[in-house]
Design goal:
434 Repressor (Amino-terminal Domain); 201 residues; 8 helices; 4 strands; binds zinc ion; alpha+beta
Length: 201
């Protein structure tokens, strides 16, 4: 899925309808930041917004996902390709999520072993300190890698407007969280809430 191309196509068709980003945003009940994000290729519209967006721009969902107005003869082939791409995107998200869990588990095991070694082995003080420092670094690297993988795996669902979005790394790190939810600002309605993590759209 070529997000840059799709973004350019959204901007182009919006201008052809003589709409500003603000006007299009109001028609879809989203913020103008969301429109600008799509047009810069930094995200695709949620599936629930695709139909209203396409109706407003007088294009089909297939045109939108292809990033151009499709001639009739190419239509079926591209529709199938677009569907396959969407499914692939969801599968990649699942893989990232599993990798993130594996990464977290390995980190925990490695750190526990290191702590046991540092506590019980008769070691010179300098070696013990070095080992503890190494454990802390391993933990930080492991947690960081798991977080990067997780933030890219799937979407968070806004409890207020139901939008699905990928948070920025900064928002993700700041957000208080439970096992399945994280406190994040929604890019669509602007409210902050406990957003549920979803792996597929
Ligand atoms: Zn929202």
């Amino acid at each position: 899925m070529d997000q840059i191309r799709i973004g350019r196509f959204i901007a182009e068709t919006r201008k052809a309808q003589h709409l500003t980003q603000r006007q299009l945003a109001d028609l879809l009940s989203v913020s103008d930041k969301t429109i600008s994000k799509w047009e810069c290729g930094k995200g695709l519209p949620e599936v629930s917004l695709m139909l209203p967006l396409c109706e407003t721009l007088h294009i089909t969902v297939n045109d939108l996902l292809s990033g151009e107005r499709l001639p009739d003869r190419d239509y079926r082939e591209r529709a199938e390709q677009n569907m396959v791409d969407l499914i692939k995107e969801n599968e990649e998200n699942k893989k990232r999520m599993i990798l993130s869990i594996i990464c977290g588990v390995i980190t925990i095991i490695a750190c526990c072993s290191l702590i046991v070694i540092a506590s019980f082995l008769p070691l010179p003080t300098a070696a013990r300190i070095a080992l503890i420092l190494f454990t802390v670094l391993t933990a930080a690297a492991g947690i960081g890698a798991a977080a990067v993988l997780e933030v890219k795996a799937g979407y968070y669902e806004c409890p207020h407007c139901g939008a699905l979005f990928v948070p920025t790394m900064a928002d993700y790190i700041k957000g208080y969280h439970t096992l399945t939810k994280r406190r994040l600002p929604c890019p669509q309605c602007g409210k902050t809430g406990m957003c549920r993590h979803r792996i597929v759209r």
